[in-house]
Amino acid sequence: MSSSLIHTITELLFVIPCVLVALSVHEVSHGWMAYRLGDPTAKNLGRLSLNPLKHLDPVGTLCMIFFHFGWARPVPINTRYFKHNRRDTALTALAGPLSNIALAFLGTILLHIIYAVGSRVTIRSEFSYNVFVAALTLFNYFRSLNLALAVFNLIPVPPLDGSRIFLVWLPPKYYFGVMKYERYIQLGLMILLWTGLVSLPLSPVVSAIGSGMDWLVELVPFFRQ
């Protein structure tokens, strides 16, 4: 077995569980927020569940795994239940990216805890060292994938959350004028992901937010090296 294949398999072992958690929490957060704002649609359809099988979009999940940017199967909402249609639609859409940012910050804290403990103790065995490296790798992927999911979904084009957050404030004729091209825009996003053109502007944003999280955590004296 070639070293490149081993590297790919090893990377997938870290990436796949991170993607499943990130996508599931993202969609549950949409459903939970909608439910809190009066819409029981997601709850009635069993979408307030952390079971990944209820949320995964095959294409979006593969994009997350291989390109580190992607999407899940959207939680259905019925805006007729909302008291303030535009505001509550935007809040429901925003809940997904915010949940991933929260998970990324949790991953950052765990990453720094593991690094701080590992740098203060003597690792004597190869097994312990491998566990240490694996833990650092896992939470690094966990942080970066959650940030990538959040940043990507904030792009203000359908079918991404950003379209429900920003475009919902447009006059209805313009909003629905954009939304009728949702399928074509989604196809365009897939092509951009495949060519890597999405990662060019978004990867620096993800890195900058991650660096900001590192800075915040390192304000705690325990984590300073």
Taken together, the total number of domains comes to 1
Separation, N- and C-terminal Cα atoms: 39 Å
**Number of DSSP E strands:** 0
What is Rg?
19 Å
Shape: globular
Q: Which structural class should the secondary elements be placed in? A: mainly alpha
- As residue ranges, the low-confidence spans are none
| β-strand amount | under 5%
Describe the biggest sheet?
A: none
Number of DSSP helical runs: 9
Average pLDDT works out at 88
Strand and helix order: HHHHHHHHH
The percent range for helix content is over 70%
Features:
single chain; 225 residues; mainly alpha; 0% strand; globular
Describe this entry's structure for a reader.
The chain has 225 residues and is mainly alpha-helical. The chain has one domain (3-223). The chain is built from 9 helices and no strands. The chain has helices spanning 3-36, 41-44, 58-67, 85-120, 126-153, 161-165, 172-179, 182-195, 199-217. Helix 4 (85-120) runs antiparallel to helix 5. It is globular and about 65 Å long. The model has no long low-confidence stretch (mean pLDDT 88).
